[in-house]
Amino acid sequence: MSTHILRAGLIGLGAMGRHHARVLSSLDGVALVGVMDPAGDPAGASRGAPVVATLPELFALGLDYAVVACPTALHEEIGLGLAEHGVSALIEKPLAHSAAAARRLVDAFDQAGLVAGVGHIERFNPALQSLQSRLEAGELGEVFQAVTRRQGPFPHRIADVGVVKDLATHDIDLIGWLTGSEYATVTARTVSKSGHPHEDMVAVVGDLADGTMVSHLVNWLSPLKERFTAITGERGCFIADTLTADLTFHANGAVPMEWEALSAFRGVSEGDMVRYAIPKREPLLVEHERFRDAVGGKATDIVTLSQGLRTVEVAEAVLDSARRRVSLPLRNPHPDLAVVTQRS
């Protein structure tokens, strides 16, 4: 047990906030000393910590750091208040509702000299942690392509942003982290089919600075819940399922070429498949442990605000690209009418 107890506060008791409260209430070396939520705590999710309605009331409880789990639209206001009062912060993703707001948060915490991070929880999924280590060690060789699919039913907890800034920011962040390369270009298409004001489906293709091709399919319109990441390179393909925290590797096979016309062609064929046995700890707990250690002065791997800002910038580029669609003239815009005309 740690001898020094850090005093933590939580802002927001929504769907994600309740999970943060659960972890904070039992985290070694941390005491959850208060929760702020203007709606109170009718479900008793605060785990016995006092619940207040305003930031000044939360500050009065004495905080070393706070976890921000309120709606995205409030991240900037709450984050700037924490920085002004010298309180370190773990801010749920996305960092802010806009790149400009995210940049103001980066500047505020930098100027205050405080530890601050973004809750991109997928980085702490066991399958992706193992995958990142293997890619960093060069097990795949040159990386050619990164593909993600993240889809499922509409989450009624989300009202202030669309699927790009909510779900797709997971994939934008994790692909940059897994490959160690920044997004260089993006092209996207969005649709809104559920009657909500924001987009609920997006398809993205792009390139990273190192030449890796990227593809993301993200939506809130599927009854199938899927969390799929595939990284393909010169030695094969890694596939991570973050719902089950499974990581598999499909190796390139070697097939002798006896056909003279194809003897110069070097392709790949199906080889061995390996599913790795990896420890499966809860990602949210690991994320909190890393942030606790960072606040305590230890060198640890957290998602920095600068990284969170870059993710929001890419998300805005995706939305901007979707608004700039290039329309092609249709060769026959009314094929049924043409058939009738020809027959008459």
TrEMBL record:
Q: Which InterPro entries match?
A: Gfo/Idh/MocA-like_OxRdtase_N, Gfo/Idh/MocA_Oxidoreductases, GFO_IDH_MocA-like_dom, NAD(P)-bd_dom_sf
Q: What is its EC number?
A: 1.1.1.370
- Top-tier EC class: oxidoreductase
Q: Does the keyword Protein transport apply?
A: no
GFO/IDH/MocA-like oxidoreductase domain residues: 129-238
Q: Which UniProt keywords apply?
A: Oxidoreductase
Record keywords: Iron included? no
Q: Which domain of life is it from?
A: Bacteria
One Pfam family recorded for the sequence: GFO_IDH_MocA_C3
Provide the GO MF annotations for this entry.
Answer: nucleotide binding; oxidoreductase activity
Gfo/Idh/MocA-like oxidoreductase N-terminal domain residues are 7-120
| Protein name from the UniProt record | Scyllo-inositol 2-dehydrogenase (NAD(+))
